[in-house]
Amino acid sequence: MEIDILAAALDEVDFAPANIYLEVAQNVRTILTTQKYSVPLDRNFGLNAVMLDKPMPRARAALQAEIYNAIRKYEPRCKVLHIGFEADLDGKLVPKVRIKIRDGEE
């Protein structure tokens, strides 16, 4: 199953998701919205914000690599199919990630 995830802050955490799809999607959204070095027991969790002041093409490329590596490390139950961005008028990049939940055969 393929799922599109927009990096938006979680309204609330579901501690008992109804299925693996909801669980993995919530985990990926958490990865996308957590700044690296902000989690006390795992300082490498999340995304590095060092590229924020870089030119847009460099920031986009660096953020794509950061997203891919973070999801691969922290949520191995899914495969990243595509990483795109939505930009607002203020120039803020909002990642949109398409994932596929692994079914155990891959």
Describe the 3D structure:
The structure is a single chain. By secondary structure, this protein is an alpha+beta fold. The chain has a single domain, classed as Nuclear Transport Factor 2, Chain: A, CATH 3.10.450.40. 31% of the residues lie in helices and 23% in strands. The protein is built from 2 helices and 3 strands. The protein has a 3-stranded antiparallel beta sheet, with helices on one face. Helix 1 (20-33) crosses helix 2. The longest helix has 19 residues, at 56-74. 17% of the residues are buried. The model has no long low-confidence stretch (mean pLDDT 88).
Features:
106 residues, alpha+beta, Nuclear Transport Factor 2, Chain: A, three-stranded antiparallel beta sheet, globular
Coarse structural class: alpha+beta
Distance between the termini: 13 Å
Cα gyration radius (Å): 14 Å
Main pleated-sheet profile: 3 strands, antiparallel
Cα shape: globular
The ordered string of helix (H) and strand (E) elements is EHHEE
Q: Would you identify the CATH architecture?
A: Roll
Number of domains: 1
Helix content: 25-40%
Overall mean pLDDT: 88
Count the E strands: 3
CATH class equals: Alpha Beta
Largest beta sheet: strand ordering:
1-3-2
CATH fold-type name: Nuclear Transport Factor 2, Chain: A
Instruction: Tell me what portion of residues adopts beta-strand conformation.
Output: 15-25%
> What's the helix count?
2
Which spans have pLDDT < 50 for at least 5 consecutive residues? none
Summarize the model shown:
This protein has about 110 residues and is an alpha+beta fold. The protein has helices at about 20-35, 55-75; strands spanning about 1-5, 80-85, 95-100. A three-stranded antiparallel β-sheet has the order 1-3-2, covered by helices on one side.
